[in-house]
Specification:
Two copies of one chain form a homodimer. The first copy, chain A, has 465 residues and is α+β, with helices and mostly antiparallel strands. Chain A has helices at residues 5-19, 47-53, 80-86, 92-98, 110-119, 132-142, 153-164, 168-191, 198-211, 272-291, 298-315, 323-329, 356-359, 398-407, 416-420, 453-462, and strands at 23-27, 33-36, 39-40, 60-65, 71-75, 103-105, 124-126, 215-216, 221-223, 243-248, 250-251, 260-265, 387-390, 393-395, 427-429, 432-436, 441-443. The first copy, chain A, folds into two domains: 5-164, Creatinase/prolidase N-terminal domain (Creatine Amidinohydrolase, Chain A, domain 1, 3-Layer(aba) Sandwich), CATH 3.40.350.10; 168-462, Creatinase/methionine aminopeptidase superfamily (Creatine Amidinohydrolase). In chain A, the strands form six sheets. Chain A has a five-stranded mixed beta sheet with strand order 6-5-4-1-7. In chain A, a hairpin with a 5-residue loop joins β4 and β5 (71-75). In chain A, α11 packs across α12. The mean pLDDT of chain A is 96. Chains A and B meet through β2, β3, α3, α6 and α9 of A and β2, β3, α3, α6 and α9 of B.
């Protein structure tokens, strides 16, 4: 267990209080089959289950009766075959005791427990199931088809309220992940040279995460095609003169994440054109750092970044017209089709499985349907203890440029003839994880991965290997 | 595509012929959510889909009408959002054409196609779905609950018949995986020293696989607790005097696998007791190599290995009584609770998802229920072109020893007082991938990872780093 027993007891108490009544089911994850049932992907516990029940084994469900206060850890004990194949593990009883949960039940009795609650007209709360085996199981015990399952809004809201604000203990685990992320990123910068393949770099940095007992918090993006938001590494060798975008993070054994992006010059120095675009992105990054503080809407930080980006792209001759109108029309989204950032914590997009509308939005700030702004994952007012990413980027996406040009989309704000000459540019993104403090924000991670142009070029000049 | 178009066309033709009639559905895999829907594990295509339809994208289904011969690749085209987030990929039409498939259809029309076949009383063939999303989808289009889905025996048998015999082209891809496996294993041997952690070694060798654009063919087993069959690496540092069991393999971008096990002395040399046990295992390994040839039942090779092991454990005073009777009673399974090996190919346990009884057994050789022998995955007669693992092991599993001793299981063949003194030994396994040739077998992989005691000790003496 990562934290003390009392931490988990208090979390469950508060969850009960917030949800008010009914039977709360928190599903742990099961093994996820890769190419046949027994060849599973590396086990990843569900974050919310971990947050309240602390235990990493597969095949567990946490049940909290919000009316009676009774807490149960549901799961089957292992047998001799399990011991032969997977080694001894704690009993379910011991795991429950460790987490301060008074009761245990075998999995076979859960259906009856739920059935009896439903028959008594009680509300059965569960979160949106993203694992399909849990969908099948829930569908069976709730007696509805997998497509008709109705997750509980009060439960979602309670979990979001609690998990959004990180405790000092959680921050310290995130900083552990950031330290490993630092090693991953600086290693990528050390290896970033013409001829080395994207897959090689991605493999080595994945190995660094794993050698610390971590996983990568998501599939590493290591690509010369920075204009593809999730560009997976290819077997192609790096080319002189291009940029390498590396977006990756570590996730500790206790499933706290890091998530950083750096865009490095494969030749060791940026070209004039790369400098011009890169500087806009790093200035946008710094602007977000200046503006982020409790009470500030993150959507407004995003829009201020878009304004600065538009101003500066006008200076370069890529955009034109009134900045305010261009941003209102979403013209900048040709270059920045995603949002400034997202929550981060036990999930690298924290709590995304609960529904972005519940995590990044509230009654005050509603989602937009405008292209670009509709990809903003975090919009609501920041609070002390939130962890968010600050990750502006500028991308030249040939297919999108062609589409907008053909349709005349936002043509009054865009100089397509100039934009056309950037089609082989790729993309730049700079991303850090920031903690909202009492009166501002700070970087997470003891060591800062270089990102200002002079720092990056200096790092690359002095690197070993 | 790994092989020529005509290879895939011919494979589908033969499959049609073997199945005879009805509509054959071969499901590709979808993205598998890790901790929320958009954070997926690394995509792994289904092996059988790849074998017949060659394509790596998610969201595809191959349909073969065994009566009319019509072949269809079912899948949805990507849109501009997909291009922005994941880059351009081939269209479904292009993928179909490349694989020599004449028709494509969008996913929405598959249900109707299946529905019309069922209404016309035709058989709809599908394989056992191991991914739960495909189970849900199949349940919907077949109109039965997920638990009532009935996979097609003729389809399973046809696929097993075809995939069991590897072509020269397939062997060469497996040898590519073996070369990377060689690098992983020798790196593990280089790193195997007191103080280094299991997770560190596992991380570094995983990074090697990934740096070649591979994945590990299963979660690497790197453990001082060799007696746990699937002992995942711990954060514990290696200890002087103990053994490190490393069971790992690579899987190429085209999803052909390697699978080797070595058990190395952490101190660089084996102790006398370790030598005694290790030599039995390496002699068993060599015996299997001598005996494996077309026409030989792999169950008989397994049993001959068990006989040799029993003889030699008698010499050491761990077993006693008549060897033949002891093996018939399954007494040796206290030390070797698993089978000698399994098929290997595109799945590291090749085709295991189709059901072990169909892959490793036939009408002549039926599964046993005896402890130990019931874990034999490959029992039937070997054929030229089969790839199997040869992986004997000797383990001292404290919980199993206690159970057998308490129950008096096979007590007439076991000297429990002596066995008791080995409880801290751990386990030894040696595993290689072998190809059944015209008149015998050979190792797969250009370079042989050292495994005889003198070779291992020499390697460890001369290693760098």
């Amino acid at each position: 267990m990562l934290f003390s027993q009392s931490t988990y007891i208090e979390r469950r108490r508060r969850l009960r209080e917030l949800v008010g009544n009914g039977l709360i089911l928190l599903f742990g994850n099961n093994e996820a089959p890769m190419n046949y049932p027994a060849n599973a992907y590396r086990f990843r516990q569900d974050s919310t289950f971990l947050y309240y029940f602390a235990q990493h084994r597969d095949g567990l469900v946490g049940v909290i009766d919000a009316d009676s206060g009774e807490e149960t850890l549901v799961g089957d004990e292992i047998d001799i075959d399990d011991i032969i194949w997977y080694g001894s593990v704690q009993s379910v009883k011991d795991m429950a005791q460790e987490a301060g949960v008074s009761r245990t039940l075998p999995m076979s009795s859960l259906e009856e427990k739920v059935d009896s609650a439903l028959k008594n007209g009680r509300k059965v709360h569960f979160l949106p199931p993203y694992r399909h085996d849990n969908r099948i199981y829930l569908s069976k015990i709730m007696g509805v088809s997998p497509d008709s399952l109705q997750p509980s809004l009060p439960l979602i809201q309670a979990v979001v309220e609690m998990r959004s604000v990180k405790s000092a203990e959680e921050i310290s685990e995130i900083e552990r992940a950031c330290s490993i992320g630092y090693k991953m990123h600086t290693t990528a910068m050390n290896l970033c040279r013409p001829g080395v393949t994207e897959q090689y770099i991605s493999g080595v940095i994945g190995g660094i995460a794993a050698s610390y007992g971590c996983i990568t918090s998501f599939q590493s993006i290591v690509t010369m095609h920075g204009e593809v938001m999730h560009g997976y590494p290819s077997p192609l060798p790096l080319e002189e003169g291009r940029l390498l975008l590396c977006d990756c993070g570590a996730e500790t054994n206790e499933n706290y994440c890091s998530d950083h992006t750096r865009t490095s010059p494969i030749s060791g120095v940026y070209s004039q054109r790369q400098k011009e675009i890169y500087t806009i992105v790093s200035d946008c990054h710094d602007l977000a750092l200046q503006e982020s503080r409790p009470g500030k809407m993150y959507r407004d930080v995003h829009l201020d970044v878009c304004r600065l980006m538009t101003e500066r792209l006008k200076d370069l001759g890529l955009m034109r017209g009134d900045t305010e109108e261009a941003v209102r029309a979403g013209a900048h989204a040709l270059f920045l089709p995603h949002g400034l950032g997202h929550m981060m914590g036990m999930d690298v997009h924290d709590m995304e499985g609960l529904g972005q509308v519940h995590v990044g939005y509230d009654e005050e700030v509603r989602p937009s349907s405008q292209f670009g702004l509709n990809a903003l994952r975090m919009a609501r007012r920041l609070q002390e203890g939130f962890v968010v990413t600050d990750e502006p980027g500028i991308y030249f996406i040939p297919a999108l440029i062609d589409q907008w040009r053909a349709n005349g989309t936002n043509a009054e704000y865009l100089n397509f003839d100039v934009i056309e000459t950037y089609k082989d540019f790729g993309g730049v993104r700079i991303e850090d994880d920031i903690l909202i403090t009492k009166d501002g924000c700070r970087f997470l991670g003891k060591e800062r991965i270089p990102y200002h142009i002079d720092e990056v070029e200096e790092y690359m000049r002095n690197r070993k290997g």
